[in-house]
Amino acid sequence: MQISRRKFLRQTAYAASAIASASTLAACGIFENSPQESESGEEDVERPVTQDKRTLYIYGWATYINNQEVLEEFTKETGIKVVGDAYDSNEVMLAKLEASGGRSGYSIIYPSDYMVTQMRDLKLLAPLNKKLLPNIKNIAPNYLELPHDPGSIFSIPVSLGTTGIAYNVEAVNSVIGEEPFDWNYLWEHKEKLRITLVNDPREVMGMALHILGHSYNTKETEKIEQAFQKLQELMPAIANFTTDAWRDPLASGDLMMCMAFSGDAISMARQDPNIKYVLPNNGTSIWTDTMAIPRGASNIEGAHAWINYVMRPEVAAKISDANSFGTTNKLAKTMIPDDLKAIKALEPSDAITARSDRITKLDPEVLQIYEGFWTRLTTGLG
Known about the structure:
By secondary structure, the protein is α/β, with parallel strands linked by helices. Helix content is 39%, strand content 14%. Helix 8 crosses helix 9 and helix 9 runs parallel beside helix 16. Keywords: Periplasm, Signal, Transport.
């Protein structure tokens, strides 16, 4: 049993833009759409295992493969055409690569941090040739030594995301009179609040574990049960558990605040000044998206060229602008748009980072414990 903490990412916010961009890119010969789709909406095709080196097949989150300007410039410089397929969860990507036995046809993938660990253990990733990646110097050194891949042997972190609180400023101030500052705020004002939590057991249970002083990744049943009991106290304030259906109710004031992922919340805050996104002072969940080369990739040289290209500061800044995530590129931070830079919660401060955690891979038997308590919580079984 694998629990996705990123399945929310592109199912709604980027669906329309992905379709529009795909059509445009297909017309100019840069991006090719697949003719068939799976039941989950993902393109269900077989990519050629033996390819010429003038084509690069990428499998990733939609925001990384539908940026027309980024794709066109890469093709213009290298002569390599990009063919991109999108997935909406790490688990979909993992299943496809496992089933291929290293012959998926893709030469670039975008696994999230915890999935890098899992794929590394399954020997599904090819080691990177750092000699072909001179632009790695642009990545902040602390991101090259993260626990999921110390030394960035198999992956390069590209985007930084967080989990925090999105809220309607007018609604919160009119009812409570003070804006949220940490996770405890939810419990302190639970009689007055109407909120949503993400539909993700690892994130929600992890948040409760965190404020109880435990790790997001604890394996102890007793501590997981304590988190479940803590969340039960909050149930009267919870409208539902959703990762993406909170936007319109929050904008209208029907919801006062929502547990949300940074890309979604910051994108909304950039469009509506009455919406803010805050990182809890007592710490939260921090995560990264990465670029990696799957085992059996056909175009190793082209894959390294793509990774090196994306690590250019100006390219990294365009990607950050498109997905409203923080960037791991230290030089790109000065190049992102002013409205995005102005959002303090775009990247956690050193103090918040020190109090935060990263969700890591857990064994199936431990995940079943989380899932059991999650089912009881979300179905009201107590």
